[in-house]
Write a structure and sequence with these properties.
The protein is mostly helical and 491 residues long. It contains 18 helices and seven strands.
């Protein structure tokens, strides 16, 4: 009785926080999507709203007689890393699929954000059995502090192939293309079909020529975006999205046949292992939630694993797998940084699974009691509110939202004067004084969510502290869907 009384007090306290911390989710949604315009590479369109950004990297791939212009810079640097970019695209597409009806006028901008990536991925995958997975020498790029518009570091293009495979990055690109085909299905059928056809081709390549791009490309992808979880989860993830996009039995069979090859995904443990992982490198939790949603929470082991995910995340769980700060905010103990990627990605899964359970009038039995769909949604809301300013620091971790937000983010384009203000070229090391400046960044990267605070809720608003102050596309992407939901369902 004492345990449940304490839990009841905890829930009441959480509810009081929710009542007292209403945020403008519509404004945050608009800004979270606008952020992607600040990360664009290539020839910017006349509709570009973040006008301090200009054209950049207009000759990517040309030395190989191929066009690789476009796509996104992943974070505060000027490299195009396709592995996290593909996950970003998958999550933007999933956000539109699940919550597009809640986006209002931002719906079109969300589609534009997806298309900026998928147009680029179509270029990267046009040659059979050759797939470009990165553009830009990461060492040369990271040695400079210069605007993307000025960069003169090597724009080396890296590819995987039949002889030098990369199943994780290929699988994630296939997932991104398949998910995006669903996002465009009702608004641009020919484009949707083109994306799906390419997804099928890329998945076949990823599955036929198996291997990690860690081995194929070595130091060019590591330590930046190494695959630590193996490539099997991306293959199953891609097959799951292809099943959702095609309803073809071969893909769900592939998922069922290969699910047990993924380390720990079917573990019977309530916590630990890969059940609670979801991000650019680990798709385990996402697979369980997506399959459960598609099959009405009746397919095993997916349904039970999705339940274990929930039980391992809730703050009242005595065996929770994540660590909560006093805020509280999610923190994955396996992470080495970029903490905000966890509350955004995991909140998205809690929200999707919570709605799915509600549609089937289901609950979840955890070791500590029964959990309802509304509790999942409540916890997701607490994470969003934390990001937007309901935290001990009273700071919004979304740039441009609220009265207090990060002003010294680790981001080259934001920290250097724009071409409008400084038309002359700023060379590789010419940006050093701006990096060391005690003045706020001159260009506001509106909507960017930074890496975030430490486990004790402290945040260092410093360009030097990239772990805390650097934004990333894969932080924002799942947040888009979550914000869209709470825009329409804020109470």
């Amino acid at each position: 009785m004492l345990r449940f009384s304490l839990l009841g007090a905890f829930a009441l306290a959480m509810m009081m926080v929710f009542v007292d911390s209403q945020h403008d989710y519509a404004d945050a949604l608009t800004k979270s999507i606008l952020f992607f315009e600040g990360q664009r590479s290539g020839k910017l369109p006349p509709t570009q709203r973040m006008t301090w950004r200009k054209d950049s990297a207009l000759e990517d791939g040309f030395y190989l007689h191929t066009n690789l212009v476009g796509g996104y810079y992943d974070a505060g640097d000027n490299v195009k890393f396709n592995f996290p970019m593909a996950f970003t695209t998958t999550m933007l597409a999933w956000s539109v699929i699940e919550f597009g009806n809640d986006m209002g006028s931002d719906y079109q901008h969300a589609l534009e954000a997806i298309r900026w990536a998928t147009d680029y991925f179509l270029k990267c995958t046009r040659i059979p059995n050759i797939l470009f997975v990165q553009v830009g020498d990461p060492y040369g790029d990271h040695d400079c502090w210069e605007r993307p518009e000025d960069m003169d570091t090597p724009r080396t293009a890296y590819a995987v192939s039949a002889k030098h495979p990369g199943s994780e990055v290929s699988g994630e690109i296939a997932a991104a293309l398949a998910a995006s085909s669903l996002a465009f299905k009702s608004v641009d059928a020919p484009y949707s079909k083109a994306l799906l056809d390419r997804a099928v081709m890329v998945f076949k390549f990823a599955d036929t020529y198996r291997g990690s791009y860690n081995d194929s490309l070595g130091k060019w992808v590591c330590p930046f975006y190494c695959d630590f979880n193996g490539y099997e989860d991306e293959l199953v993830w891609a097959a799951t999205w292809l099943y959702k996009a095609t309803n073809a039995a071969e893909y769900i069979k592939y998922v069922r046949d290969n699910i047990y090859s993924i380390s720990n995904i079917s573990t019977s443990s309530t916590n630990g292992g890969s059940i609670g992982e979801f991000g650019w490198d680990a798709k385990h939790a996402g697979i369980n939630v997506l399959v459960s949603e598609m099959t009405g929470n009746k397919e095993e082991p997916f349904s039970s694993n999705a339940g274990r995910l929930v039980c391992a995340l809730l703050p009242e769980s005595p065996t929770k797998w994540v660590e909560y700060s006093p805020g509280p905010s999610f923190l994955n103990p396996l992470s080495g940084g970029c903490n905000m990627q966890h509350p955004t990605a995991l909140s998205f899964l809690l929200l999707v699974h919570g709605r799915s359970l509600d549609s089937t009038k289901s609950t979840i039995s955890c070791d500590f009691g029964t959990t309802t769909p509304s509790r999942l949604i409540q916890v997701a809301k607490s994470q969003v509110d934390y990001i937007l300013g309901t935290n001990p620091a009273g700071m919004s971790y979304m740039v441009g939202y609220g009265n207090k937000f990060p002003e010294f983010i680790h981001h080259r384009g934001s920290s250097l004067p724009s071409i409008d203000q400084h038309p002359e070229r700023i060379g590789c090391r010419d940006g050093d004084p701006y990096f060391a400046s005690k003045s706020p960044n001159p260009n506001v990267l509106t909507g960017a969510v930074v890496g975030g605070p430490l486990i004790n809720d402290t945040y260092s608003d410093s360009r030097v502290d990239s772990v805390q102050s650097e934004p990333a596309t894969y932080i924002n992407a799942p947040l888009v869907g979550v914000l869209a939901y709470f825009k329409s369902n804020s109470r």
